[in-house]
Amino acid sequence: MGKVGGGSGGGGYPTRLGALLARTGILLLCARGACGGGGSCCPPPSPGSAQRWTPARAGTPPLEPQEKPGPAAVPGAQRRSGAPAKPSRESAAPMPFLRRPVFTVAPGDRALSLERGPGGNSGVGGLRSIRRRRSEVEQEKEDNGEGRRPRGPLGDGGQREPGKATRFRLEELRLTSTTFALTGDSAHNQAMVHWSGHNSSVILILTKLYDYNLGSITESSLWRSTDYGTTYEKLNDKVGLKTILSYLYVCPTNKRKIMLLTDPEIESSLLISSDEGATYQKYRLNFYIQSLLFHPKQEDWILAYSQDQKLYSSAEFGRRWQLLQEGVVPNRFYWSVMRSNREPDLVHLEARTMDGHSQYLTCRMQNCTEGNRNKPFPGYIDPDSLIVQDDYVFVQLTSGGRPHYYVSYRRNAFAQMKLPKYALPKDMHVISTDENQVFAAVQEWNQNDTYNLYISDTRGVYFTLALENVQSNRGPEGNIMIDLYEVAGIKGMFLANKKIDNQVKTFITYNKGRDWRLLQAPDTDLRGDPIHCLLPYCSLHLHLKVSDNPYTSGNIASRDTAPSIIVASGNIGSELSDNDISMFVSSDAGNTWRQIFEEEHSVLYLDQGGVLVAMKHTSLPIRHLWLSFDEGRSWSKYSFTSIPLFVDGVLGEPGEETLIMTVFGHFSHRSEWQLVKVDYKSIFDRRCAEEDYRPWQLHSQGEACIMGAKRIYKKRKSEKKCMQGKYAGAMASEPCVCTEADFDCDYGYERHSNGQCLPAFWFNPSSLSKDCSLGQSYLNSTGYRKVVSNNCTDGVREQYTAKPQQCPGKAPRGLRIVTSDGKLTAEQGHNVTLMVQLEEGDLQRTLIQVDFGDGIAVSYVNLSSTEDGIKHVYQNVGIFRVTVQVDNSLGSDSAVLYLHVTCPLEHVHLSLPFVTTKNKEVNATAVLWPSQVGTLTYVWWHGNNTEPLITLEGSKSFKFTSEGMNTITVQVSAGSAILQDTKTIAVYEEFQSLRLSFSPNLDDYNPDIPEWRRDISRVIKRALVEATGVSSQHILVAVLPGLPTAAELFVLPYQDATGENKRSSEDLEQISELMIHKLNQNSIHFELKPGIRVLVHAAHLTAAPLVDLTPSHSGSAMLMLLSVVFVGLAVFVIYKFKRKIPGLNVYAQMQNEKEQELISPVSHSENRPNVTQAELRSPGQFIDEKLDPQPIGE
């Protein structure tokens, strides 16, 4: 969703540059190509997320350079508005640098930025591919008064009748000007200029040398003028000769207060001046400032955002700082400034939690401790989505794959913004919150490069369609540009470019989008020849987008102090085109238009629009400009410098009269900055008197009632050449009688061809009464609502205004129960919030009963008590049937929700035997930790099979038909988490096995963890190989879990790589007998550590001593005893080694011991496999890497 432009603002907040500069008076200059290496001249990168709020009001991306964010700042949708934005976020950061030298004409422009660098000279424009070109020789002749005149004047230099053609006076006149060079700064490629204005003669200029190779500023100079720019003084010695300055800030409410920021790579300091930059005090910082946000009313209150995402506050204009909050999202912090002016020290911010979620927080600037922070919106919000604008707060929350937008009006509880039911927005940009109304651009599910314009009620909740398929473009930094322009000085007047059948056409409205029409093309061209253009097939189309560089103004301009004058570039035809662009002017608020130039020019308003200054877009040096004193009907040529100048930028004097202009440029690429001060006061010989004005009535095609009122302005007579001075506003205004044209369709209603507003197919008009109770009243819509800010009275107002009506008694209907985040899962031991939604019913007289399905139930006496949700904690996992029933005297309704309660799955262990025989089923079991996690899905992969087996049970039987090493993998899906484990099993036709025991001292050093068992298994195997001489390929040893320590010895057949020399069963018996013999002789031992010797025994060979040496027994008895022992031993050996499938009892015991292992407090991550299948090619290799025994199932 798009950022709201203007308003309470936050650090580096993108706003309309013209409005911003009107308050700060800062011009920024950059050498051409200065963004090639990054740095200050480069606008911040676009982080990119279409579903985030993006700025729509201003037409500029964020104003401060910043690091590439993750889910952070988003340069977004931009409206081309001529109206200056309200003072607030505009001053949040130092002025931006432009990447191209374009002359800026945005309303109230007091600052801009340009670039100068290798590869060419700067100039006013000359950068657009659509611009016509002429030879430099021809251009030079023209600038010297030779050859043909600029395209547009009459060929014979004569004048035609008024209204038939634009008149041009070719006689060259001279403007009063002075030139000053910033000597010694010829290498500097960036500059920032501040002009206090408002009867102040002080101008400050900060120039810098940005090294693209180093990516940093290496030099800086500070200049100050006290005579309106006639002369300048260098102040490097006052700020420190070795100090390198990076940015210049100006307090928006007290222009005498200046703040300079040093380059943080050298030092982090602030230099503060309270006397318009005459003297400075230096203060060191313990953090690095990335952006600043000045309070729009309190001159000493500042918020500072650091490079490590911390927010600081100062109540002493930067002299002392206090940490407010860590983990603040870039550009998402705001002062709380409402029209009611309450809580001026409240700070709104979006902060990230430790787990990466975003929260909306508020706190006082001097007391932002954990206990004093509030969370106005319950739960988390989408990252980078908080917007605070005037009386409105916006957040976004995505659930079920769809974004949902919420608004708080005057800091009351949040309500979901209501668009038409099937708008299904993909993206939303809040364009404006002026006049207690929200203007938004919405990209619906079936749109790609267009947006629909919607306008809201006062609370910002219910939206109705204003215009469909408005053209949008993506700016050079990835920001969305909406082709919508609000005309300054006339309330409710907008221009928009709408796409119709793949053609873009310009439309105009005078009543906030209630009615739109095409623009009537001029009757004649520049030369007075008739133009044949018949509506609706042909009309005038205007470019409403900003220039190629988003930091410069656009190619359309209007002013609050000149409400009838609009200057724009465009073309005449069936659609908007980038070819054959001309300049047009309207002096009657868009009703009629005149062509003034056949090439693009930038136009600056002087003397409240009494003088228009036009400067041609060109990359060549110029010394002339054109002036008009009659709203563009005629133009005179003036020279402002004797030597042609590459123009980098123009700055008009801040204030109401604006009669001094400074042109910034250079004579050549290597020359110093040249500052040309142009004083227009010498043009006038007197101030205007009352008789110099005439009345002019605002109208729309003859209709005088605009937004419910008739407004009459006074204009200077075109033949009078006097200085106007202060703007007086409208001369007179009177309300009109209300007609149907003053009303728009209400929410849920659509305008049909007969002009009537009827309910949409998806809308039930009676649903508006669902939020009231029997005995109360509600406003029953007539299908119409008065256009916000419309001042009409009487007439049909009573007929179309919503009527109070008694709330009807209704039975409950349309009951739903959902979780607050829209999910069907909850976590064990954590709060889950359930929301009860009722489509119809008496809310105050309805009994609600909720059964959570775990033996707990609650009741509520009315639905309003559940507005914040019903919280519950489930102590067990499982699927719970949550039921809710509502009852009132007229009926009842019920709803069911099946809620899956889970706990996080931490570990999966696949339990599987090490060895098995062919064609024998083996049970594989997935053992989980914790054992109860809720509903699970098991995916089994066997060997090289490409198709998995999917089960809901954690056990699966497998049968192996061939010898060798086989791999089994299990994946366990628990909610959004998937864990897996892989085990390898050896398959043979036959093998021998024997249980081993150890001397008791081994138990003292057994930590009972898998790593220790694997290491001891390798040690035992090595001891067996050394004692018996048997190849390690025949031996597999697995130490079993638990105490006392035991192990399983496997004697395996081995077949070499040629497939020959495979051991027979007799060979395995011989090896087994050799093993037993060595074990009985205590020949198998190993040294655990110095002095600790461990013996390995064959377990359970006999239950009695082999020899009894007590003297009380006779010889025959002893012989009989020995015979019994040897017979028992023979039986044991035969039983143990002659069977084909040995050790079932052993495996059963292993299963019990494995279960003991799984409840061990030792970390279970140690059971994860550390080898690949390629490493398990033989039993010998297997024992080295995989000795942890596994149970085979229940």
From TrEMBL:
The chain crosses the membrane at residues 1117-1135. It comes from the Eukaryota. SMART domains: VPS10. Pfam families: PKD (PF00801), Sortilin-Vps10 (PF15902), Sortilin_C (PF15901). GO terms for cellular component: Golgi apparatus; membrane. Residues 135-149 have a biased composition (Basic and acidic residues). Residues 1-36 form the signal peptide. GO terms for biological process: post-Golgi vesicle-mediated transport. Keywords: Glycoprotein, Membrane, Receptor, Repeat, Signal, Transmembrane, Transmembrane helix. Residues 117-126 have a biased composition (Gly residues). Residues 1162-1175 have a biased composition (Polar residues). InterPro entries: Ig-like_fold, PKD_dom, PKD_dom_sf, Sortilin_C, Sortilin_N, VPS10, VPS10-sortilin, WD40/YVTN_repeat-like_dom_sf. Belongs to the VPS10-related sortilin family. SORCS subfamily. This is VPS10 domain-containing receptor SorCS1. It comes from Phascolarctos cinereus. The lineage of its organism: Eukaryota, Metazoa, Chordata, Craniata, Vertebrata.
